[in-house]
Specification:
Layout: H1 4-13, H2 21-35, H3 45-74, E1 78-82, E2 86-89, H4 92-99, H5 102-111, H6 116-120, E3 126-128, H7 132-146, E4 151-156, E5 164-168, E6 171-175, E7 188-199, E8 202-207, E9 213-218, E10 221-233, E11 240-250, H8 256-260, H9 264-276, H10 292-314, H11 323-326, E12 327-332, H12 338-350, H13 355-365, E13 366-369, E14 380-382, H14 383-389, H15 391-411, H16 416-422, E15 425-426, E16 432-434, H17 435-441, E17 445-448, H18 451-459, H19 463-469, E18 474-476, H20 483-489, H21 492-502, H22 524-549, E19 558-563, H23 572-587, H24 591-596, E20 600-605, H25 613-630, E21 639-644, H26 649-655, E22 661-664, H27 676-682, E23 686-690, H28 695-702, E24 708-710, H29 714-726, H30 733-743, H31 754-761, H32 768-787, H33 789-801, H34 808-820
Helix pairs in contact: 2-3, 2-5, 3-4, 7-34, 10-12, 12-13, 12-15, 14-15, 23-25, 23-30
Bound molecules: 4-amino-1-beta-D-glucopyranosylpyrimidin-2(1H)-one (C3B).
Length: 828
């Protein structure tokens, strides 16, 4: 470290927070002229964005350093959030807000000839995630920093995020998202942090001089993990935490033997292969695909992260048994479950800890969050593939399983079936490693993400484990969203209006303060301001639609939005069938009836996994309907159908504040929580939804008068499915009319939609026909109620006032208290 006589000098020249606008401007110009090597003559919006973000980033790094210094000296327990996805979106606006320098930057760039809005538009989304799970991780790390917990995220630095979606001839077309074209100012490469990671090879054991059996794993392929750090600034606090993303690099530039032998090409190919590990995000949401490269990604990321965490722990010179007092690790779904095995391996093979002591440390360190009950999403790795890639880990899994099954057998000696049911190894051909079971066995707490979901995992997929461990191991932590991005940034006017009534922006840190606006729900002046802001947001979205889709929509119409990944269980097909029903009804209306009808703009958006045929067919149908309906002069303003291409976080920030109604209409029991439902209501839109996921708790908070619920309950789903399988259930008559229209070619070639229709007329696994009448009834109610502007706006205000519970700050406090046992460290 630096000698004390030099320290004064360091302190004198140390980089400080901005004193004011001029300092920002000075830094901005310095970055334009030196970092970017540009000048006043060739500084465009992109260069200005880069310079401004460099200046902001420098300040984040100052706060980051201070925080890490503080956390190290305080020497308290930290939490590590392991997630294969962090769907961050753009960083600049959030960094300005959280660092409290929005005004300085805004007027600073204005003086220099730029508009802040134009600069913000230059930033590509960091789209390192698919949907809800990845965005939840992003909200969570924002909250961990904002509530002053010492916590890091660990993930992968994909070179290609989620693909970009274009619509060509009504179909989804994917193109790669190379988001790192221009250097990324929001990351700090840590080339000095390089960790060797091994795959393949073989295992060997021998007895050492102390008579102890030692296991070694050797002879495999090696790659290097390099760290990239992304500062995560908390809102209204000095705390700036870290998101560490790993990139894969070859260990040696070249295979020298091959290189010298003149085989230049294959030596380069080898080195390039290493880089493919972190090259691309798998584009499946709620679906497991079983590819070897995916397992490689998982191990690469988990091994690098644990190496880092263990190294940090070892610096404190504590005994191993204190590891769980210093470290909590949360597994975001089963994707990082290998961490359980890797930590056990480090402890027993590398550190010489006895098996039982090691296993005790492991289970006290990990917590596991389950995000889905869908069978097709549960990870299971074929044993042969696993053994080949990670031979030592496979051995350890067999041991873990053996000890676990012995324990179960002792507890329930007569239940042979139980052993087969709960074994980590599924006895199929080939055998499979059940990752969720491994995660449960390796963790001290297992949680679901909304009340219904947490109940369902206890009574269905993990039932046997409740029998074995008792109910206390299983709990609920309902998801949340960060109000910084999803209220203040996305909807600044609403945030300002609320602040003017609440007296400050404190509600962005304590969302329960929203309750203070409830008495204003019937105040005509407040209602007027509320409506004006909604109109403004609808106009902003309408302008976006004009630009991207090329047509106008009426901002006085009811904006009805369903944006999320396209999935049969999320039932966008039911929505578009409902739209067709509406279209047919309008066509049958008299002039008088048309005058009474409520005009609608039906807005869809979302990506389909590239290999998901049914989801792609749904997208095609939406676009086909849009083309016919929007061009039909009989319909006029009464109905417009919009598909917004390439739905992502930045588009969500424009779409969410503009809804009157948003749809969250999954088959009951299939959507674990949903989080966009929370975002829409927080922005004054009402929900049309099923009794599923967090819709249930939203209903409890906002009151059942302020939400439109419909459909069968989760408890009936199994019976209904059974009926479809074993008897002839008649198709809903309205749905039949819809299918007739499709089949008669109203929306183009009907052959395209054959399998989509037969999925409903056949087994109807997602119960579209069963719920259709109830859905139409709910829609009718929406149409009627929307006409009564006064009640509508008071419902909207009341709903927002009661959304405090859904802040991710609350969710993080619950995790910290009941799973992680970590405490905040204040920077003061
Ligand atoms: C999602 C679920 O589908 C959502 O209901 C839930 O709100 C979020 O996770 C966050 O908990 N999910 C996902 O996006 N990807 C998965 N593989 C599994 C669940």
């Amino acid at each position: 470290s630096i000698p004390s006589e030099s320290r004064q000098l360091w302190q004198k020249f140390g980089v400080k927070e901005f004193g004011g606008k001029e300092e920002f401007q000075q830094e901005f110009i310095r970055h334009v002229e030196t970092t970017l090597a540009r000048s006043i003559y060739n500084c465009d919006d992109l260069a200005a964005y880069q310079a401004a973000s460099q200046a902001i980033r420098d300040r984040l790094i100052v706060a980051w350093n201070k925080t890490q210094q503080k956390h190290t000296t305080k020497d308290r327990k930290r939490v590590y959030y392991l997630s294969l996805e962090f769907l961050m979106g753009r960083a600049m606006d959030n960094a300005m807000l959280n660092a409290g320098i929005k005004d300085i930057t805004k007027s600073g760039v204005a003086d220099l000839g730029f508009k802040i809005e134009d600069l913000l538009e230059q930033e590509p989304d960091a789209a390192l995630g698919n949907g809800g799970l990845g965005r939840l991780a992003a909200c969570f790390i924002d909250s961990i920093a904002s509530t002053n917990y010492p916590g890091w995220g660990y993930g992968l630095r994909y070179q290609y995020g989620i693909f970009k979606q274009r619509i060509v001839d009504g179909y989804q077309v994917e193109s790669p998202d190379y988001w790192l074209t221009f250097s990324n100012p929001w990351e700090i490469p840590r080339y000095e942090i390089q960790i060797d990671i091994m795959f393949y090879g073989y295992t060997r054991k021998y007895t050492n001089d102390d008579g102890k059996v030692v296991h070694v794993w050797e002879g495999g392929e090696q790659v290097q993990a390099v760290a990239y750090d992304v500062p995560v600034p908390g809102y209204g606090t000095e705390t700036t935490n870290n998101l560490r993303l790993w990139a894969s690099k070859p260990t040696r530039e070249f295979d020298f033997e091959k290189f010298n032998a003149g085989d230049y090409e294959s030596s380069v190919r080898e080195s390039q292969k290493a880089e493919t590990i972190s090259a691309v995000l798998y584009p499946n949401d709620n679906f497991y695909s079983g590819k070897e490269l995916r397992l490689k990604q998982q191990y690469f990321w988990v091994a690098a992260s644990l190496n880092d965490i263990v190294r940090r722990f070892k610096k404190t010179h504590r005994p191993w048994k204190e590891f769980p007092d210093q470290v909590a690790i949360q597994l975001n779904d089963t994707h990082p479950t290998l961490a359980v095995v890797e930590l056990q391996r480090i402890l027993i093979d590398m550190e010489g800890v006895e098996w039982d002591a090691a296993w005790n440390i492991v289970t006290n360190t990990f917590g596991y969050t389950n995000h889905t009950v869908l069978p097709e999403a549960l990870e299971k790795w074929p044993v042969p593939l696993f053994t080949n890639l990670l031979p030592r880990h496979m051995e350890i899994i067999y041991e873990i399983n053996l000890f676990f099954l012995q324990k179960v057998e002792k507890m329930f000696p007569k239940e042979r079936d139980l052993l087969a049911r709960v074994s980590i190894i599924e006895e199929s051909t080939p055998q499979q490693v059940r990752m969720a079971y491994l995660a449960i066995i390796g963790s001290h707490k297992v949680n679901g993400v909304a009340e219904l979901h947490s109940e369902l995992i206890k009574t269905t997929i993990f039932k046997d484990f409740v029998t074995i461990y008792g109910p206390d191991k299983f709990m609920n932590v309902t998801n949340g969203i960060t109000p910084r991005r999803w209220l203040h940034q996305a909807n600044p006017k609403l945030s300002d209006l609320i602040a003017s009534k609440v007296g400050s922006y404190d509600f962005l840190k304590d969302l329960n303060l929203l309750k203070k606006i409830e008495p204003l729900a019937h105040d005509p002046k407040f209602q007027d301001e509320w409506v004006t802001i909604k109109k403004f947001n609808k106009a902003r979205l309408a302008a976006h639609i004009k630009q991207s889709n090329g047509f106008e929509v009426n901002v006085n119409a009811l904006f009805d939005v369903q944006v999320k990944r396209i999935h049969e269980y999320k039932r966008q097909q039911m929505n578009i069938f409902g739209v067709i029903h509406r279209y047919l009804s309008i066509k049958a209306m008299t002039k008088e009836e048309k005058k009474e009808a409520t005009p609608r703009v039906c807005i869809f958006g979302g990506k389909s996994a590239p290999g998901y045929y049914m989801a792609k067919t749904i997208i095609k149908l939406i676009n086909a309907v849009s083309e016919v309906v929007n061009a039909d002069a009989d319909v006029g303003d009464l109905l417009k159908v919009v598909f917004i291409a390439d739905y992502n976080v930045s588009k969500a920030e424009i779409i969410v504040p503009a809804s009157d109604i948003s749809q969250h209409i999954s088959t009951a029991g299939t959507e674990a929580s949903g989080t966009s439902n929370m975002k829409f209501v927080l922005n004054g839109g009402l929900i049309l939804g099923t009794v599923d996921g967090a819709n249930i708790e939203i209903t409890r908070e906002v009151g059942e008068n302020n939400i439109f619920l419909f459909g069968h309950l989760a408890e009936s789903v199994e019976d209904l499915r059974h009926k479809h399988r074993f008897s002839d259930v008649p198709l809903d008559p309205n749905l039949e009319k819809v299918f007739n229209a499709i089949e008669s070619g109203t929306f183009g070639d009907p052959n395209i939609y054959v399998s989509l229709i037969s999925s409903v007329t056949g087994s109807d696994y997602y119960l579209v026909s069963d719920d259709f009448q109830s859905y139409l009834d709910a829609q009718k109610l929406v149409d009627q109620d929307f006409k009564n502007k006064d009640t509508w706006v008071s419902r909207s205000i009341t709903a927002v006032a009661n959304m405090g519970f859904f802040s991710s700050d609350r969710a993080i406090d619950e995790y910290a208290e009941s799973i992680w046992n970590v405490e905040p460290i204040s920077m003061e």
